[in-house]
Amino acid sequence: VRSPEGKIRLYCKGADTILLERLHPLNQDLSNVTTDHLNEYAGEGLRTLVLAYKDLEESYYEDWAERLRRASSVPEAREDRLARLYDEVERDMMLLGATAIEDKLQQGVPETIAILTLANIKIWVLTGDKQETAVNIGYSCKMLTDDVTEVFVVTGHTVLEVREELRKAREKMMDASHSTANGFSYQEKLCSSKLTSVLEAIAGEYALVINGHSLAHALEADMEVEFLETACACKAVICCRVTPLQKAQVVELVKKYKKAVTLAIGDGANDVSMIKTAHIGVGISGQEGIQAVLASDYSFSQFKFLQRLLLVHGRWSYLRMCKFLCYFFYKNFAFTMVHFWFGFFCGFSAQTVYDQYFITLYNIVYTSLPVLAMGVFDQDVPEQRSMEYPKLYEPGQLNLLFNKREFFICIAQGIYTSVLMFFIPYGVFADATRDDGAQLADYQSFAVTVATSLVIVVSVQIGLDTGFWTAINHFFIWGSLAAYFAILFAMHSDGLFQMFPNQFRFVGNAQNTLAQPTVWLTIALTTVVCIMPVVAFRFLKLDLKPELSDTVRYTQLVRKKQKTQHRCMRRVGRAGSRRSGYAFSHQEGFGELIMSGKNMRLSSLALAGFAARPSAGWIETLRKKKGGDSGAGSPDKTLKV
């Protein structure tokens, strides 16, 4: 900054661990006082910065600016050249003071972190704040709680110190899990080959806090694995006073050695490199600018929305993609393997079972839209239940819905369907006859029967796989079936034959084939035999070994029934209360009149007159009449008005 007097002054702000080392020796006393204030502010959870300045000579500044311009234009090692120039000018500065601001947590941050932890999601905090501030933030957002057995703080300034502190942390964690846990002796636990499995079975909850200068040593090639395994054994990890580059290096370290999907979330320019390095980048739009939002894959305004992104939309996306792939492999194996079985009877002459147009339209028209609808709209449980049961997220972490086993199950089911799809019609057509006594076993009739069976079976199968039905699902599934029959009859119609006689030669074949009861019985038998094992297996699995999602769906069904019964009981209860409400009226009734034993009869005119008056008035009238009758001494006298 150039002042009105022409003097050039450099102002600098930054972390105390960096800036205090660049001060002039004359600032020692003020630096000690400022450090005490910074520690006090950090202990209260405030975010701190140090401010300093330096007066520059005109000649020095011009020379430095020229060297900066040349370094900026050199493509080779430009970053290193610029870093050396910045380090040169940011020396021997004078301390101005320090700032401390309160950066409150957004609403819902502790609850979100707690729920994500229940979903078995590891959460690490990478921040540029002081260690005391970072620890206080950890407690305020419930990452650090009273249940934590011990918090390991790594503050070593050399490689040996950092290695020793990490080793002591591992020893304490393993000692707490007993000396022979998991069948390993203490010496075997120290072996690198068994280190990972032992640390993953650590009993208790631990936390790791590491400073930026210690993290720089921990990220070196010969220590990064040791640091990663120690950190992964802890429930919470807080890295404080880290640079933007170190944030990205930590994410890259996890991606390199762990089979895990990483997600980085931040709101400032210092988080951009971390967001870009992670598999999934999330930016929070706020007062820190939009740099993080522009570099992210997803963005929203508050941290608490991360819970919905992961537990609802993320889980649904995984579920839909797995179902999409399983069904896609199944329907194509069922379609293709029929050709393989047909090859044994046609001498592998390249003759196809199906009509050429059916082969073209099978994946484009007949089976494409239903699977797309399932891949877009399907869900196993509602979003409220997904948020209520975080454990539903774990199958995605363990790849339970689509893996090698599920892949081979889809292939086996497709092969099983193809066997039945070919051999059941083949066996029926061997001796079947038409209604007119002619032989039914011709190639075109067989092709129509197999194709129709295939379309119906895969449509029923996707109906069983669909967990959430919408109007679009109904329209696509039943519409695809309707489109199949419409196209089938159109291709065997007389109109297309007259327009394209060389392409559509089998006029009326579909109509004649599907008019035979034997064909429909064959299609029904094939469908039932193909689908029944799937239905039986799912019923047995649901009854004997239900998954968490099955239990949640059953719980939801029970809740709906209970609500319906409760509404019915409330309706009955209200009707009964109206009938018995007279017994609890605040107005005086006819108890005294009834107990008197007198026969009081009112004419219809009197009743009409009393009904038009306030209740208290006509009751009082009856009292007066009663009193007059008593004075006359006529207990059986009839009252007339």
TrEMBL record:
The chain crosses the membrane at residues 324-345, 357-377, 407-426, 446-464, 476-499, 519-540. It is an enzyme of class 7 (translocase). ATP binds at K13, R47, T127, G128, D129, R241, K247, N270, D271. Mg(2+) binds at D267, D271. Keywords: ATP-binding, Magnesium, Membrane, Metal-binding, Nucleotide-binding, Translocase, Transmembrane, Transmembrane helix. The keyword Ribosomal protein does not apply. InterPro entries: ATPase_P-typ_cyto_dom_N, ATPase_P-typ_TM_dom_sf, HAD-like_sf, HAD_sf, P-type_ATPase_IV, P_typ_ATPase, P_typ_ATPase_c. One of its GO terms (molecular function) is ATP hydrolysis activity. Its cofactor is Mg(2+). Its EC number is 7.6.2.1. It catalyses: ATP + H2O + phospholipidSide 1 = ADP + phosphate + phospholipidSide 2. GO terms for cellular component: plasma membrane; trans-Golgi network. It is found in: Membrane. One of its GO terms (biological process) is Golgi organization. Residues 293-546 form the P-type ATPase C-terminal domain. Belongs to the cation transport ATPase (P-type) (TC 3.A.3) family. Type IV subfamily. PANTHER family: PHOSPHOLIPID-TRANSPORTING ATPASE ID, PROBABLE PHOSPHOLIPID-TRANSPORTING ATPASE. This is Phospholipid-transporting ATPase. It comes from Caloenas nicobarica (Nicobar pigeon). The gene is Atp8b2.
